[in-house]
Amino acid sequence: MRVAILTDTMDRSAMGTALYTRKLVEGLVSFAEKGECVLTLVHSKTNQDPLYERAHEMILPTFTVPKLSRFLSEAFFLWRTRNDFDIIHYPQESVYPLFWLSRANIILTVHSHIEGWKNWGLKVRYGMVYITLRFFSRHIAAILCEADTVKKSILRISPVPENKIHTIPLGVDDAFRQAPEKGAAQARMHERYDIPSPYILNPARVDPHKNIYRLIEAYASLKETHNISHTLVVGAKHWPTENVRVEKLIRQKGITDSVLFMPYIEDADMPALYAGADVMAYPSLHEGFGLPILESMAAGTPVVTSNIFSMPEVSGGAALLVDPENTEAIAAALWKILSDTSLYHMLREKGKEHAKGYSWQKMIDKVFGLYKQTSRINL
After folding, report:
1. What band does 245 get if pLDDT is binned at 50, 70 and 90?
2. Which Gene Ontology terms cover its molecular function (predicted)?
3. For residue 91, which of 24, 158, 14, 167 has the smallest C-alpha distance?
4. Domain 2-171+360-374 is found in CATH 2.40.110.10
5. What whole-number distance in Å separates Cα of residue 344 and Cα of residue 200?
């Protein structure tokens, strides 16, 4: 079985779709080394990542045509290799619908609810995905998504047959299950990153849909009403206009010394970051999956998250769910966990048990099984 996977996202980042692609490639490389497939990693430019030394590497051709370079690169790649692969996997959904140029079976991963992009200003991305699914789905052999709510979103906006869409959840690294105990984790965070304890954690970057603004409002309310001593630790600044909005709110609430934007945390210390928190607050307005929910649960930290999109599905009844647009509800849920020891321990144990059902190896095995099944399809 000859498999090609597009890996540009893996080269650019370590989060989100990049993490998904990296974990998938790591697993596929192992299958290739056992002789179960011939794997080609396709990307735009050379990279020193050692994973590329363990598989065939193909660099996309370069065209210096303004606004059309990527379009032409993908078109040329698909046409030139039209007979070379059984499977071509696009591990993220923002693609040009040029699949018909290849005779390979195309697999596309759709990570998020289509409506979510439209709601949060990602109109170009929404348009590309909508056009691909609405008008070119007959050229796609299989679609992967990480939650059933995403599958339902695809079915709402496109004519894709349900049997073409496969839900395969993400996994959790064992390192989170092996996180240090809370006291040791807090000591490590203070020593290495100057993060004071106790703290409430939200690891998400400051993007509008991550709802950091309302979380800060809820936190300020808790400080005023219950005089909590916790620091609120949130992800790095990212979206410029949202950064300004959030910083202004922090100044207005007089909590400049109590809100900490996360410094860069080494991957090896992420489990301790979760384990040291009293609660992980994740009231996002849109998630295609919500991996921090499971990472927090695996590390033994209770979770407050949203009651919309994929978050109820991913949390599996082991978190407190809130309306993410209701600041009072967010504050009330946080206070329940901070003030009720029995609830804290109940959510901690339920979360750890729930997270046991998710592993990267399970995801990889299911994806590879789908490759084998799909490679026999004659479109």
Report:
1. very high
2. glycosyltransferase activity
3. 24
4. no
5. 13
Token digits of residue 355: 């997270």
Is the distance from CB of 299 to CB of 225 less than 8 angstroms?
Answer: no
> Terminus-to-terminus CA distance in the chain, angstroms?
16
In the CATH scheme, what is the homologous superfamily, with its name and number, of domain 174-355?
A: Glycogen Phosphorylase B; (3.40.50.2000)
Long-range contacts of 73-80 (CB under 8 A, 24+ apart): 73/44, 74/98, 75/101, 77/42, 78/102
Q: pTM of the prediction?
A: 0.94
Provide, for the chain, the percentages of residues in helix, strand and coil under a 3-state DSSP scheme, each rounded to the nearest 5. Answer: 50, 15, 35
| Helical residues (DSSP H) of the chain, grouped into ranges | 8-12, 17-33, 69-80, 114-119, 123-135, 148-157, 174-177, 182-193, 212-226, 240-253, 270-275, 291-298, 311-315, 327-339, 341-355, 360-374
Q: Measure the CA–CA gap between 153 and 169, rounded to whole angstroms.
A: 16
Per-residue pLDDT tens for 192-227? 999 999 999 999 999 999 999 999 999 999 999 999
